[in-house]
């Protein structure tokens, strides 16, 4: 990333709040919203605890004609995109003269499971005449990119990143590429909705999925009681722009996308992901022209198993050297759940807000850290923050790191 691409808008739909302000208030306080799964049809399934987005009324933010065409994960994306555009003060009038100058990139891991399950039930119970026409597109993981583009009239470069959970960070690199190639702005981010019955059944074989029944103990990364992660829904969308263009129109620069690195280790074993993650971190630092000691906070991937957490701790120590044992590390997702591709997008939102407020949010439900890391627990920690490192690993071997600098 040689030219500066900046974040000017943030939109969040998360288990702990809708909107960046509500999300940050809950995140910095260390609020845990993990609770028993309440979605219809899930009562008999082994997954007991998750991070659900509650109190979110998609009909209050998205027109009916788009709601009926799309799954819950796209409802989250459409709403988060609106919030990001509003935050960036980028309206249709700003680009309608050149709609090809604004593009969309999203990442998703599973697509529209709830929509797909409903239509397949119609097929088997009532026959093909009762399957809606949008079954062909609503389940697809690219649906959010397409529907945001159509609804907002955005005709610039559009795409979807399919690189496992790490795609939530890799999408930023694709957005930066779009800016470098001439786009004036890009909408980028990730949302998920994996809490429908069919989707949960598909996840039950995931290595590391926690089936604990106590919300306070089901997801405790970096502890000797770590028993895996719990899934979550929601996500975040961002407006990113060329810095000169953003300042020309008077936008507030909330953060700078300074560097990105990615690797693929080609393995399902997360305990061996350390080497690939360390290489991704070094790549992100190199692209950002950032020394290890310049990193002021690390937003960890925090899978929540002994082996995977040890591998991440080793990767941080490998890439940052002795400084890796001193830098504050946090994993707010232990209080909201791990939203697959959307997890690093939410972490990026938290990182930007942490830089703005000079506060490292705590890691909920974590007290007895058993790895050689300075994990922030209990309550938030005030600090002078200029640069954050966000990490993500995928279930099938993708590793990604993003360096974000404070806006000015």
From TrEMBL:
Matches recorded under Pfam families: ketoacyl-synt (PF00109), Ketoacyl-synt_C (PF02801)
Signal peptide stretch: none
Coiled coil, from the record: none
Top-level taxonomic group: Bacteria
Keywords: Acyltransferase, Transferase
Ranges where the Ketosynthase family 3 (KS3) domain occurs: 2-406
Keyword Acyltransferase annotated: yes
Keyword Transcription regulation carried by entry: no
Stated family: Belongs to the thiolase-like superfamily. Beta-ketoacyl-ACP synthases family.
Name of the featured protein: Polyketide beta-ketoacyl synthase 2
Organism: Streptomyces nojiriensis
Lineage, opening ranks: Bacteria, Bacillati, Actinomycetota, Actinomycetes, Kitasatosporales
